[in-house]
Write a structure and sequence with these properties.
Elements (H helix, E strand, L loop, with lengths): L3 H12 L5 E3 L9 E15 L2 E11 L4 E3 L2 E6 L7 E7 L10 E6 L3 E7 L5 E8 L4 E5 L4 E4 L19 E7 L3 E8 L2 E2 L7
Antiparallel strand pairs: 1-2, 2-3, 2-4, 4-14, 5-13, 6-12, 7-10, 7-13, 8-9, 8-12, 10-11
């Protein structure tokens, strides 16, 4: 049996705050993945003269686990010509992958990227400053510039999305660096990993 005071501390730790926390399974093949969940306690398990456990339900924010955030960075020395990059979206999410983009302009002017694989959708910023880095959070709809300027009016309002599988992306002229930050969904357990 577990001491009642220790048992209470464990219950407070498990279900004390109803907010999503990261739950990681400590086992081989699962070290790069976690679930976002919260736990609700349903009752104590008492038998053989003492407290032995607690019945609980785990509530997850998605039907899959999340992979730790990853990023890939591309730098371009010659910004007078467009460049083609490829990105393989391996996420199990049923929606499009909507990464965070950091786009750095080489000279003052416009910067655009086009996902050729997704109906040639163009994400574009106009009238950026030389060396300016714009961060576009395509999931939450946030835009930030390292200059402190508001760039919503410079944005064409086409958020960048990646389809499942290989994406061909045209990086326009005047972009010296682009960073893609993303988090894959992964179905694990039941033979899915």
């Amino acid at each position: 049996p577990v001491d009642i005071f220790e048992f209470t501390q464990i219950k407070d730790w498990l279900g004390g705050e109803i907010t999503y926390k990261e739950l990681q399974i400590c086992a081989e093949n699962f070290e790069d993945f976690f679930f976002r969940c919260y736990i609700t306690l349903e009752g104590d398990l008492i038998y053989a003269g003492g407290y032995r456990g607690v019945k609980a339900t785990v509530h997850c924010d998605a039907p899959w686990a999340w992979q730790n955030e990853e990023e890939v960075e591309y730098t371009f020395d010659d910004t007078s010509v467009p460049h083609l990059i490829q990105f393989n979206n391996l996420s199990a999410d049923s929606e499009y992958l909507r990464p965070i983009l950091e786009i750095t302009s080489d000279q003052a002017g416009d910067c655009s990227i086009v996902n050729i694989s997704f109906d040639k959708r163009e994400t574009k910023f106009t009238s950026l400053m030389q060396g300016e880095t714009v961060t576009l959070d395509n999931l939450n709809g946030f835009i930030e510039s390292n200059t402190g300027l508001r760039r919503v009016s410079n944005f064409n309002k086409v958020f960048f999305k990646l389809i499942k599988g290989m994406n061909d992306i045209a990086v326009g002229t005047n972009i010296s660096k682009i960073k893609i930050k993303y988090q894959n969904a992964k179905r694990i357990g039941g033979g899915f990993y």
